[in-house]
């Protein structure tokens, strides 16, 4: 009997709950840390970015309108399915980041725990950053946080799963919908996560994943008038590029999470900054009833 | 070059001298309409699908977008329409994008008869026409006297164009003479106003019927043939519009009179609109690529065209937050 041929994968994008090829028809080869072929990934164009934003916008009313409790349950379910795919994630993180097996396992565990931690915030964040205000009149006065809308997230280039979860989960947990530009060299955990999301009750379009050169899609996302916020984590260390993206984002006053000088240590305690970065506060005056 | 489906047969059935004779009696009308060659359904759909794959980019796209905007009959036909909404729509018709004065005006604003006065006042002297639906829109199931009165009232209130519906029940029952007479009567009642005849192709069932109804309307004096009311699904489709464009092309060859075409309903994106323009150019020809001879009945389409226009001008994708709701 002949030796079995390996099945080489060609991955696609994740847009609006479907897995389309890039509109451009292009793909590129993903190699592991030693330069060995891993898989083919789609090379998204700016038109794919446009389609992803349209899908995210369409999904926004449903996702932001769901109760916080319901969103939390859906995100817990995502963690369960991630746990089921643990071996695949470990393999992808180990080969992509060149980690020893044990360290890769630790990174994946941390990523899943991080997802659970953020999922827990779904129905709690409003009570921490919202308030009932004391006012000098016969009114109830509330400040409540609301999701900002469609958020473009440039995923970290180096930490392909823990870093990814650390920027993606805080954006979706509060009800935003996301267009995610995955790491160029290490996209596989993001692609697998998109498959996890597609099979775990997350409505289509809530998270849209683009693979390919961030330089192709990021300018289109940063300047897109229908994107409300952008997280530049993936542009860490590239101040010139980050600066251009910030300028493009200024046109419609996007909320910008600025790019750090170097990619941070994602194992550190995350805090609430990334959740609150994609929230706006609505204050309501309500006459007191008799 | 468009395949001229059945053109030769139409012309041989119709040497010019006999065009008037066709309408003398129910029998001659029926003989003529049923003598029209059948539409090759598969061919028409394949042709429309083929034409819709044309890639229209950069300067051609710019031209197409502005042309499409200038062809729009900006429409609101809802039970909840108010004078305020019509005034807002008229403001949008006059200046579709308040931030850009280069955007052309739309062709017309299309409303229910009772709101014609409001629209006429808002658009007075601007060159944007007021179109009114009439004759018991959308079903057309009223008596001829009511249809006539409906039309007269709309015109008296200031409508430049009247969009009438045909009695589909009568047409499908084969009472062609009745439909013919109704159109002719309404045409007379409309006077100087342009008459658009809505065939409601979604209820006509076959392309053969679309072709017959188009010819019937043109013989009865229609200035435009229009696909749909927008209240029935399917509304306008590319193949149906293709069949109607062939009919107006052949009718001009036979009679010397040019008739316009207006697809309406379901055209929501710039891409769709550009497909229609390609079909117009390739089927009826350049003569129809003009707001006087081709209109698009739509409301949400305008915003999409404006967003595409802004994308071409600025290079960044536009968002609906920056355009008026309608």
Automatic annotation (TrEMBL), chain A:
The UniProt keywords, alphabetically, are: Oxidoreductase
User: Any idea which GO molecular function terms this record carries?
Assistant: oxidoreductase activity
Q: Which residues form the Aldehyde dehydrogenase domain?
A: 28-257
Family annotation (InterPro entries):
Ald_DH/histidinol_DH (IPR016161), Ald_DH_N (IPR016162), Aldehyde_DH_dom (IPR015590)
At the top level, the lineage of the source is Bacteria
Which first-to-last residue range defines the signal peptide? Answer: none
Pfam families this protein is in?
Answer: Aldedh
Q: Which Gene3D superfamilies match?
A: Aldehyde Dehydrogenase, Chain A, domain 1
Instruction: List the PANTHER family hit by this protein, alphabetically.
Output: ALDEHYDE DEHYDROGENASE-RELATED
Instruction: Please give the name of this protein.
Output: Aldehyde dehydrogenase family protein
Q: Which organism is it from?
A: Haloactinopolyspora alba
TrEMBL record, chain B:
- One Pfam family name from the record? DeoC
Pathway(s) served: Carbohydrate degradation; 2-deoxy-D-ribose 1-phosphate degradation; D-glyceraldehyde 3-phosphate and acetaldehyde from 2-deoxy-alpha-D-ribose 1-phosphate: step 2/2
On whether Protein biosynthesis is a keyword of this UniProt record, the answer is no
Q: Which UniProt keywords apply?
A: Lyase, Schiff base
Query: E.C. number, please?
Result: 4.1.2.4
Which family does the record assign?
A: Belongs to the DeoC/FbaB aldolase family. DeoC type 2 subfamily.
Question: What name does UniProt use for this protein?
Answer: Deoxyribose-phosphate aldolase
Organism (species) = Haloactinopolyspora alba
């Amino acid at each position: 009997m002949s030796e079995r041929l390996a099945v080489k994968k060609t991955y696609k994008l994740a847009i609006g709950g479907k897995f389309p090829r890039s509109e451009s028809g292009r793909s590129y080869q993903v190699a592991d840390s030693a330069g060995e072929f891993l898989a083919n990934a789609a090379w998204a164009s700016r038109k794919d970015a446009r389609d992803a934003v349209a899908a995210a916008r369409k999904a926004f009313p449903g996702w932001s309108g769901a109760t916080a409790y319901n969103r939390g349950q859906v995100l817990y379910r995502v963690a369960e399915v991630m746990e089921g795919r643990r071996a695949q994630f470990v393999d992808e993180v180990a080969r992509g980041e060149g980690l020893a097996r044990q360290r890769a396992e630790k990174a994946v565990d941390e990523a899943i725990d991080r997802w659970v931690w953020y999922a827990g915030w779904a129905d709690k964040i409003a009570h921490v950053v919202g308030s009932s205000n004391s006012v000098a009149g016969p009114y109830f006065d509330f400040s409540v946080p609301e999701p900002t809308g469609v958020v473009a997230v440039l995923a970290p280039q180096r930490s392909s799963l823990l870093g990814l979860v650390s920027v993606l989960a805080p954006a979706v947990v509060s009800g935003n919908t996301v267009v995610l530009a995955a790491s160029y060299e290490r996209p596989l955990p993001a692609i697998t996560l998109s498959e996890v999301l597609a099979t775990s009750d997350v409505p289509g379009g809530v998270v849209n994943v683009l693979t390919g050169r961030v330089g192709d899609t990021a300018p289109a996302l940063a300047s897109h008038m229908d994107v409300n916020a952008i997280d530049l984590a993936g542009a860490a260390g590239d101040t010139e590029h980050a600066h251009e993206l910030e300028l493009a984002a200024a046109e419609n006053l996007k909320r910008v999470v600025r790019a750090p000088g170097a990619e941070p240590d994602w194992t550190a305690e995350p805090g609430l900054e990334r959740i609150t970065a994609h929230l706006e506060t609505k204050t309501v005056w309500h006459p007191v009833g008799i | 070059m468009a395949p001229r489906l059945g053109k030769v047969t139409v012309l041989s059935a119709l040497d010019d001298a006999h065009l008037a004779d066709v309408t003398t009696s129910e029998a001659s009308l029926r003989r003529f309409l049923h003598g029209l060659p059948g539409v090759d359904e598969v061919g028409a759909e394949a042709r429309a699908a083929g034409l819709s794959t044309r890639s229209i980019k950069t300067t051609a796209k710019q031209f197409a977008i502005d042309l499409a905007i200038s062809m729009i009959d900006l429409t609101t036909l809802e039970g909840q329409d108010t004078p305020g909404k019509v005034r807002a729509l008229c403001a949008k018709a006059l200046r579709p994008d308040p931030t850009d004065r280069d955007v052309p005006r739309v062709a017309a604003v299309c409303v229910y008869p009772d709101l014609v006065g409001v629209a006429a006042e808002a658009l007075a002297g601007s060159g944007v026409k007021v179109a009114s639906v009439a004759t018991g829109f959308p079903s057309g199931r009223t008596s001829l006297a009511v249809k006539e009165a409906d039309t007269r009232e709309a015109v008296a209130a200031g409508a430049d164009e009247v969009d009438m519906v045909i009695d589909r029940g009568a047409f499908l029952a084969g009472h062609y003479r009745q439909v013919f007479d109704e159109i002719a009567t309404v045409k007379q009642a409309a006077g100087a106003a342009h008459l658009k005849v809505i065939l409601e192709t979604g209820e006509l069932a076959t392309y053969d019927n679309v072709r017959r109804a188009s010819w019937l309307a043109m013989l009865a004096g229609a200035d435009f043939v229009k696909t749909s009311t927008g209240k029935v699904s399917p509304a306008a489709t590319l193949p149906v519009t293709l069949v109607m464009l062939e009919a107006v092309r052949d009718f001009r060859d036979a009679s010397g009179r040019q008739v316009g075409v207006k697809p309406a309903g379901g055209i929501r994106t710039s891409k769709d609109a550009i497909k229609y323009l390609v079909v117009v150019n390739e089927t009826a020809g350049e003569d129809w690529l003009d707001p006087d001879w081709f209109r698009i009945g739509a409301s949400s389409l305008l915003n999409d065209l404006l967003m595409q226009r802004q994308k071409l001008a600025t290079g960044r994708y536009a968002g609906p937050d920056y355009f008026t709701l309608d």
